[in-house]
Design brief:
Layout lengths: L8 E2 L14 E5 L4 E3 L4 E8 L7 E6 L3 E9 L8 E2 L4 E5 L7 E9 L2 E3 L7 H13 L22
Antiparallel strand pairs: 1-2, 2-9, 3-8, 4-5, 4-7, 5-6, 6-8, 6-9, 9-10
Length: about 160
Amino acid sequence: DYSTKYWGMVPFCAKLRNGSNHSGLDFELKPDSKIYSSTDGIVSHTQIGKEEGSGEIIAISGDGFSLDYSGLKNLRVKKGDKVKKGDYIADVVRIPHGEHHLHLGFSINGKQECPLKYMDEEFYNATKEMFAVADYGSQTSAKCLCECESLTVPY
């Protein structure tokens, strides 16, 4: 359900307009997109986001990792639920800037990491295609600091 109507994608650790570094991947999505779990794990928490446009948030945890999804509505899971890769967990929300997008953050033992370094081949290939058509110039003035958007070889 990827879209490039506004910008398409913002990579991990891109330098944002406000001077901060991005801490995940943003995927611009079509308005009726459904969000599916990209891994097996347990829902460690859900909450309403405090930042503009964050919508509802789900964290799915596993053995030393946490995968954080924000930009959601209509959560289909609650804290303590076990999920499998591919389970329908929420819908995408429209943020105040007008687009629908999912923010995907990833951490290992509490340290933020680029999600692409740990995703399977299917996710890697899909992301490579998305970066090729994305225009995130309005979101950032610098390339990703870990160069994940170049995706020349799998991690």
